Amino acid sequence: MSDLPETTAAPPVRSSWISLSSNSGAMDAYLALPPAGSGPGLLLLQEIFGVNRHIRAVAEQYALDGFVVLAPDLFWRSTRRVDLGYVGADREQALKLMQALDPGAALKDLQASLAALRARPEVNDIVGALGFCMGGRLAYNAAALPGVDAAVAYYGGGIQNQLDLAPRIACPLQFHFAGLDEHIPPSAVDAVREALVEGDTEIHVYPEARHGFNCWDRAAYHAPSAALAHGRSLSFLAQLF
């Protein structure tokens, strides 16, 4: 038996819900601070399932990697702090929330969140965006906004329908697509590749992965693809330091 006294170490990442000011009220967001206390900002954009336990864990994962991470609650106008699972009634509710989300309001929330993140004293004046599924499409949208220094989109559905934004994107952009995605066909990936061929863009396709492969709470989770994508994302985002 050890004679050393028991100690309670502080957690390496400090996380909490905070309130942000938007154009139409107070919006919640999940904030995760890195062990160093400061670093580049990373706007983390949710799937249709809300800022649920997976997104909060991803926020803490990237905070451990050195980022000041902010995950805004994009469904706040309908239901605050949505925390849904991926099947059954939860999935049905998530689809309804996505369908009710006003694109114009979501864009304003992105802008408000970016401004709030950049204004935080822990952020070193550089901000990136990263998102999954619906959030992947929004990360692509964010890349067209002033003040975003890099963006990463995981299996963002519908990006092929918003390629008119491509000429407005002035920051490096990275995409992660699943080769077996039942929602995003290869033709959509090809359209994105063709539209952004002249930009500072990386496109990665994971042949054995399905939609949602990064989420360990989903049946589609594919650990080899998730690990490879995370490493590529970190290498890509390292330019923010």
Itemize the secondary structure elements and their pairings.
Elements: E1 14-22, E2 25-33, E3 39-45, H1 53-64, E4 68-72, H2 88-100, H3 103-119, E5 123-132, H4 134-143, E6 150-154, E7 173-178, H5 186-195, E8 201-206, H6 223-237
Parallel strand pairs: 3-4, 3-5, 5-6, 6-7, 7-8
Antiparallel strand pairs: 1-2, 2-4
Characteristics of this structure?
241 residues, alpha/beta, Rossmann fold, 8 strands
Radius of gyration, in angstroms, nearest whole number: 18 Å
What's the number of extended β-strand segments?
8
Q: Per CATH, what is the topology?
A: Rossmann fold
For the biggest sheet, the summary is: 8 strands, mixed
Biggest β-sheet: strands ordered side by side in the sheet: 1-2-4-3-5-6-7-8
Q: Measure the end-to-end span.
A: 44 Å
What is the H/E order?
EEEHEHHEHEEHEH
Descriptive notes:
With 241 residues, the protein is α/β, with parallel strands linked by helices. The model has no long low-confidence stretch (mean pLDDT 94). The chain has a single domain, classed as Alpha/Beta hydrolase fold, catalytic domain (Rossmann fold, 3-Layer(aba) Sandwich). An 8-stranded mixed β-sheet has the order 1-2-4-3-5-6-7-8, with helices on both faces. The protein has 6 helices and 8 strands. Helix 1 links the parallel strand 3 (39-45) and strand 4 (68-72).
In short:
The protein is of the alpha/beta class and 241 residues long. It is 32% helix and 24% strand.
